[in-house]
Amino acid sequence: MGQSKLLASIIVGAAVGAALSMLDRTTREKTIASTKRITETVSYYAENPAELQELIQEKVTAAQSFYESASENVSMLVEKADEFKELPSTIQDMISDTKSAFSPTDKE
Description:
The chain is mostly helical. The chain has helices at residues 6-21, 25-47, 49-102. The longest helix is centred in the C-terminal third of the chain and has 54 residues, at 49-102.
């Protein structure tokens, strides 16, 4: 039995599709511009790895800050939900106390 040709067919199909899409001038120009921009960015960070490290650190710090903020917000919401769960029993107790305060007492 021969090997599956699925992967090879997918690669060939992708290459043919990419080649056909390059016939369109707008697509070709945008692809060239994107490739140049990516190449320049990679070259810049290859020459300045300290800046890349700083950029990555900033992104990590921002993500950590977002996570901490979201975590605090979730904790606060959970606390508020617990307070709302206790609210009906508190209201019921208040109603009972009010009823007993205004209801006629036993006659002696």
